[in-house]
Design brief:
It contains 3 helices and 36 strands. The protein has 510 residues and is mainly β.
Length: 510
């Protein structure tokens, strides 16, 4: 594999495009949404698509540019009111100059949030009715105690320490009674080598400067600003009523001349030392757990790999190690684990006597090759923290990654599509990697990451079964027909990828 890095001028124009998308385009989109509210009923019909092949309860959020007099809302599903939230959140813009305190108050929009129950691949309609009277704010998910902000639901209790950079000082699982944070340690500590300080700088050294809290029936949001050396940082935690995980968004704004990374410098073109290889010097989010991080598993394309490296550090072309995670990584001692879901493919750092860390930001001299400038743009990373019992297989870490990456799709207006479920996965530990139509036929591609060698599925009414095909859609075997209940069983080895054509009845053939 070859990794090519560039620092050409076109990146500046890309930043401008990103700014337009995050601001002007978003405003136009929100204005369009608000204009679609029926003036007579003061209601808005939205359609939500569940992109997963399972019956599942999903958290849904929708941005709306409503009149400032709208203080709350009601959401209805099939005529029945469901619990919902309407509140203002600071914009997700990551390309405008970052002023921690002012940015937390300005440029806000309304956000509707609720839980919905969905069938596989279902288009489901909801009615949103804005209300102009204020309702009592439910703050049961979050509260403040001295220098701590606490999240709590029926599953977990999480404490964040404002005197130590907003780190997570406690992550307690109520069911098992297990504390996941090391005594005196921290989860989501930001740490990196700043050239201006000539040392490693940690967010634990900083006190949070400003705090913004939003809470409702289904979600609580904590937004904090702090300083890391000369850089400004905003950390946002999102906590959900029905989940044990915590979503994190970290935004770092660096002044001109900021250098974070290996301080090594040389003018020798033949020197094999490369500063960008040593991830431990970059700005990392680190996770100190109470259990020993004996094993590290990471997601790869159609695979899960167990790391064989006790120490991932290297800085030489001749000593390259694999320190890349695609969608998630998981550390465990066999009894307890901590998974981190990634917003993008990134590097990680793991030294034998230290906790795991994921790379958020790097920028310094690259040993005779080029320079990386961190100034002029906000650097935002998103990730999810998920503590669990057992191994990644026991805890369903792979399946939870599908939920994280395949969020519900929200449309304004009523759906005009057939919402009958064409296909449903009954077995766990199976992923639908593709569902497509070509030459008048429907195809589905499955990936089995579990130990079972037989996959149970349920097939929709217009199909009679599944015909095994090669990946270029050539038929290999006879069709596997469904039974009277629509169920079929498919033989698949572990980590196998298989393609099937959904066989139609004669009357439904195109």
């Amino acid at each position: 594999d070859v990794l090519i890095c560039t620092n050409h001028e076109f990146t500046k124009s890309m930043r401008y495009q990103l700014y337009a998308l995050n601001n002007n385009f978003r405003d136009l989109k929100n204005n369009l949404k608000s204009s679609l509210i029926d003036d007579e009923t003061d209601e808005l019909i939205i359609t939500v698509f569940n992109p997963l092949p399972r019956h599942i309860r999903r958290f849904v959020k929708l941005d709306l540019a409503l009149d400032s007099s709208a203080h709350s809302c009601k959401v209805f599903s099939d005529g029945v009111e469901i619990k919902s939230d309407l509140f203002e959140l600071a914009s997700d813009s990551s390309s405008v100059p970052l002023d921690a305190e002012s940015n937390m108050q300005n440029d806000c929009h309304k956000k509707v949030a609720f839980y919905g129950d969905f069938k596989p691949y279902e288009f489901k309609e909801f009615t949103v009715k804005p209300l102009h009277e204020k309702q009592r704010e439910d703050t049961s998910l979050i509260y403040r105690s001295k220098d701590k902000v606490v999240f709590e639901n029926a599953l977990v209790k999480i404490e964040t320490d404002l005197s130590r950079g907003g780190c997570i000082s406690s992550y307690f699982d109520k069911k098992s009674g297990f504390e996941y944070v090391k005594n005196g340690g921290a989860v989501n500590e930001l740490k990196g080598y700043f050239d201006s300080e000539k040392r490693f700088v940690s967010s634990l050294e900083s006190k949070v400067n400003a705090v913004s809290v939003q809470s409702g029936e289904n979600i609580a949001v904590l937004r904090m600003s702090l300083e890391l050396a000369t850089s400004k940082v905003i950390i946002e935690y999102r906590f959900y009523k029905e989940s044990s995980y915590l979503d994190v968004k970290t935004t770092v704004s660096c002044p001109n001349g900021t250098k974070i990374g290996d301080p090594y410098k040389t003018d020798d073109w033949h020197d094999l030392h490369r500063t960008f290889y040593d991830i431990k010097y970059g700005l990392n989010a680190c996770f100190a757990t109470s259990f020993e991080q004996k094993h590290l598993d990471k997601h790869c394309a159609f695979d899960v790999c167990k790391s064989k490296d006790c120490d991932t550090s290297y800085n030489n072309l001749k000593d390259i190690k694999h320190n890349i995670a695609v969608n998630w990584l998981d550390v465990t001692d066999g009894n307890h684990g901590l998974a981190v879901y990634l917003g993008r493919t990134t590097a990680y750092t793991k030294e034998s006597d230290y906790e795991i860390g994921i790379s958020l930001l790097w920028g310094t001299d690259c040993s005779c090759i080029w320079n990386s400038d961190l100034s002029g743009v906000n650097n935002t990373e998103t990730y999810r923290i998920f503590p669990h019992d057992g191994t990644w297989e026991d805890a369903g870490v792979y399946g939870a990654n599908e939920v994280y990456n395949r969020k519900p799709c929200v449309f304004i207006g009523k759906a005009k599509l057939n919402s009958d479920t064409p296909f449903e996965l009954i077995s766990d530990n199976v992923e639908v990697s593709a569902l497509f139509t070509e030459d008048g036929n429907d195809y589905i591609r499955l990936f089995n990451y579990g130990k079972s060698r037989v996959i149970a599925v349920k097939i929709g009414g217009e199909y009679t079964g599944l015909t095994p095909c090669s990946h270029d859609k050539k038929i290999k075997e006879k069709a596997i027909l469904k039974d009277a209940c629509g169920r079929a069983e498919l033989p698949m080895r572990r980590f196998e990828i298989s393609t099937y054509m959904l066989t139609k009845t004669e009357g439904n053939r195109r």
